Amino acid sequence: QVQLVESGGGLVQPGGSLRLSCAASGRIYSINTMGWYRQAPGKQRELVASITAGGSTNYADSVKGRFTISRDNAKNTVYLQMNTPKPDDTAVYYCNAYLRVSILDRTFSEYWGQGSQVTVSS
């Protein structure tokens, strides 16, 4: 029943900006850490950024200073603001969340978005 729906992907020019959004829907009791991963053709999926329920963030070294992860807990949504993207940022971006659907759940289950293509090109 729980779904993570992404939006905001597309083509962006170097030096431009793009914002990805990922909204969790369905019965949700609580969401712990949310994050963004990406995978380029022929490469392994890598963590781009993560954010805890309390707002603590972590970034891959390659995106520090350029990307910003944030969340709106009232909307169960996580964002990735991509400033000054580079061609190497081209990849399919997936949002991720660990959540509980009920107070009875003893742990968090992992969910993934459908993936969004981000292409950085002039």
Task: Report on this structure.
The protein has 122 residues and is mostly beta strands. It is 0% helix and 56% strand. It contains no helices and eleven strands. The strands form two sheets. Strands 2, 4, 5, 6, 9, 10 and 11 form a seven-stranded mixed beta sheet that branches. It has a four-stranded antiparallel beta sheet with strand order 1-3-8-7, with no helix packed on it. The radius of gyration is 14 Å and the shape is elongated. The model has no long low-confidence stretch (mean pLDDT 97).
Quick overview:
The protein has 122 residues and is mostly beta strands. Helices cover 0% and strands 56% of the residues. The mean pLDDT is 97.
Question: Layout of helices and strands, plus pairs?
Answer:
Elements lengths: L2 E5 L2 E3 L4 E9 L4 E10 L6 E6 L5 E3 L7 E6 L4 E7 L7 E10 L8 E4 L3 E5 L2
Parallel strand pairs: 2-11
Antiparallel strand pairs: 1-3, 3-8, 4-5, 4-9, 5-6, 7-8, 9-10, 9-11
Kindly list the characteristics that best describe this protein.
122 residues, mainly beta, seven-stranded mixed sheet, 11 strands, 0% helix, elongated
Shape: elongated
Can you count the helices?
A: 0
Number of beta-strand segments: 11
Structural class: mainly beta
Main beta sheet: strand number and arrangement? Answer: 7 strands, mixed
What is the CA-CA span between the terminal residues? 40 Å
Estimate the mean pLDDT confidence: 97
User: How many whole angstroms does the radius of gyration measure?
Assistant: 14 Å
pLDDT < 50 runs, ≥5 residues: none
- Helix share of residues? under 10%
